[in-house]
Amino acid sequence: MAAASLSDVPARITDPEQLKELLGIPFTPEQTACITAPPAPQVIVAGAGSGKTTVMAARVVWLVGTGQVAPEQVLGLTFTNKAAGELAERVRKALVKAGITDPDVIDPDNPPGEPVISTYHAFAGRLLTDHGLRIGLEPTARLLADATRYQLAARVLREAPGPYPALTRSFPDLVGDLLTLDSELAEHLVRPEELRAYDAELLSSLEGAKLSNAELRKIPETAAARRELADLVVRYRAAKRERDLLDFGDQIALSATLARTRAEVGAILRDEFRVVLLDEYQDTSVAQRVLLAGLFGGGTGHPVTAVGDPCQAIYGWRGASVANLDDFPEHFAHADGRLATRQALSENRRSGGRLLDLANGLAEPLRALHAGVEALRPAPGAEHDGQVRCALLRTHAEEIDWIADSLAHLVRTGKEPGEIAVLCRTATDFAEIQGALVARDVPVEVVGLSGLLHLPEVADLVAVCEVLQDPGANASLVRLLTGPRWRIGPRDLALLGRRARLLVSHARVGADDDPDRRLAAAVEGVDPSEVISLADALDTFLEAPLEDPAEADDGLPFSADARVRFARLAAELRDLRRSLADPLMDVLHRVLAVTGLEVELSASPHALAARRRETLSNFLDVAASFAASDGEATLLAFLGFLRTAAQYEKGLDNALPGGENTVKVLTAHKSKGLEWDVVAVPGLVTGTFPSTQGREKWTAQGKVLPHELRGDADTLPDIEAWDSRGMKAFHEAMKEHQHTEELRLGYVTFTRPAPCSSAPATGGARPRSARGVRRTSCTPCTSTARPGTARSRRGRRSPRRTRRTRPCTRRPPTTPGHFPSTTRRWPAAGRPPRPYSPTWSESPRTRTPTPRRPRPSTTRRRTTTRTGRHRRTPKAPTKIPSTRPTAISPTTRPPTGRTTSRRKASSKTTATTTPTGSPGRRTGRRCPTKQRLRRLVPTRRARRPSRPRKHAPSPPGTATWTPSPESCCAPARASPTCPCRRR
């Protein structure tokens, strides 16, 4: 396609202010500078929430609107199909909104040009299709799916002549090691021969070294295993060439070779695409950087705009190199040798100032490592928005309960569940968090808890296919029989199994218990290991009429409903088996039509049904991709592919959150690029988040490429000497490197919350503005920790509401739900939230409750009243004419909530009020500090002694708290039992 001349492109935008008016976006000065920069190479270091996607779309509008480039001359690359679709949609809408393109196509046969937006791998695949013959690659090469890679690698490993004495791991582990090493070699453009030569040199250098510890002695074993794995990689790549197959690593590696060795390809692409946009550039690998620099860099001065953030480079464990972003000015220099321009976007329009303080604190060491990274600053007017809440809890169970109670309270007070997310470091706690939220009637969706094959609707479809292909697939048939469609009970299921055993033994009822018959069967040569098929037993219900089942049942007492359902299912399976020779996609669609699964999900109005329809669609896409990769794909081959995926890929990755209104539970890695109003982060303890489990070291794992051979070797630790001191220094450097990776992940996690535009998530607790008017904010981040494993800030500000009787300002950090910037408290773990009511002495309109007659107590054991943070407003208050607070009579007390006995005396706890002069209770005004301390004591503890005694020392790792007389019940000092009076 010939490129259009720049003079043929009309200019419709002449001023940045005109662009702001057309798009309706008030760009910041930083954004305006990046958008209106001249067409030259530049790198934009865009912090989290700084609007990088908006800037990229606006830059396309600016370049096209000013006549510098035609729409079809713009190339945009990103990582995922979802991100590519979002960027393309934004660019398309921005061009239409600016009046540059017409949404209504006049000539459908000759539509106007549009920017080319795709993923990095799709761009590499197109490059190989168009120019692969230049390096001897046929354009008909097919792309391997992940499960097919494992199948081919397993075949290569089984057919390898060997011997391989250094490969001592299990067969499935060796298959994974083979593919991992192949991917690392492709990502860093290292040939297997180079790896074998390096390991041979390493082994020779270690022959004379004194290997004094186990780690040093393991290095020669690892090097020998890696050499043998490299030989298997050579065989695996040969098998792919013989079958004309490629995987994603081959796509990028071959494209990089093409760009590096064929300069004419770069000239063709530079003429086709006058402007190139590279998204998430910090996540590119070394091979992707070589590909892009070979096509559009190398001192050509081509207008390339790369956008990324080194603080969000969290995919180093899968081959990404953050050094690509740091070295962009050198890789994409101007034609005259000048380095590319570096710009920054640092104004965050997503989170409030309080959250940014936390994120900036985490990223401070990262900013020192990378050039051009500035601290995030909030948008004007949002300096005090957002809330960071911490809870220091004793046990893991309390942590899960606290999170579930807090989120349930938010949902009950009006927050949409879809605006809430729980971000975990790993998937270990997914099941517990999901169960706790479900128990509180909170709609929840776990992203990535299980693979695609483990989801119910897909598992049912696969079960039908397995029964059709293999009559001995009893587990799959039992799943169908006990499912919601057929609902066969355990009694009829057991009888069906008994009939299946009778069919195998060729005997009647009672033959299993007759030793003579068993002996005769052994003499006749009946194989007792013959597979018992429930499907064969199911087919017997088609051979005899249902009206007279006595003869066919052999006396087995099946229920009437079971006979009918067995016959119907057997008829369905027999009808479906007739189409097994059809193409794979036809078989799957026929199964969906006969079983009615697709119709059932389409007719359901439930939001979960839409998610399940999407899941089925994803599964059918996987099947279509498999059928496209294998022209003669059969159901048997596809089921083998699925078994491989279940074994090696955790059942096909399905880690995309749905669009229904549910609380999302996912890992921090999968949250990148997403945002919610409320984010809860559990497990902020040493060893969990941040994690102490670092990368696999090349000195101990044969599947890991040595650092010296990697393209980003300058950013990784190396071993100075082959002795214990050198190994110790290497391990310490790896720990520091892992800590830096965890800081990046924490930075991504704590920048996910977005501002709220509706009611605040805390149920009304919002920060005040300078004029005293409450401003809408969000509850953007909630973190939890456990004592003894992580440090927490214990200095807390007192609530803003002024009380005449002021409780302690230093609240015990073990009280779940208390936060410094709110006037309410979230419900503690296990307690339902309570409506707010003021204390008895804080408001001039406090009403005196009607005195209640004390009820007789059923036990002499002392009872105590447990309340929330504030005493409840009485149900039947008596109005008083005066506006001044009325003192409460010392002989009567207002009801302050439910009462529970400190020592259980009967099966039912009795709530009582004690009359004046009772020996077991003090009267008068209650100290709020004492009430708070009493709530911290479990109700099942023993009775408190009458005389005060010294407190036992706190266990290690427990936060302690001691009130002071100045901050407790002063100036009232109403209760002589307050701890401050005891001192």
Automatic annotation (TrEMBL):
It is an enzyme of class 5 (isomerase). Residues 25-352 form the UvrD-like helicase ATP-binding domain. The keyword Hydrolase applies. Its EC number is 5.6.2.4. ATP binds at A46, G47, A48, G49, S50, G51, K52, T53. Residues 353-673 form the UvrD-like helicase C-terminal domain. The keyword Glycoprotein does not apply. Residues 889-899, 907-921 have a biased composition (Low complexity). InterPro entries: DExx_box_DNA_helicase_dom_sf, DNA_helicase_UvrD-like_C, DNA_helicase_UvrD/REP, P-loop_NTPase, UvrD-like_ATP-bd. Residues 791-809, 850-874, 922-952 have a biased composition (Basic residues). It catalyses: Couples ATP hydrolysis with the unwinding of duplex DNA by translocating in the 3'-5' direction; ATP + H2O = ADP + phosphate + H(+). GO terms for molecular function: 3'-5' DNA helicase activity; ATP binding; ATP hydrolysis activity; DNA binding. Coiled coil: none annotated. This is DNA 3'-5' helicase. It comes from Streptomyces avermitilis.
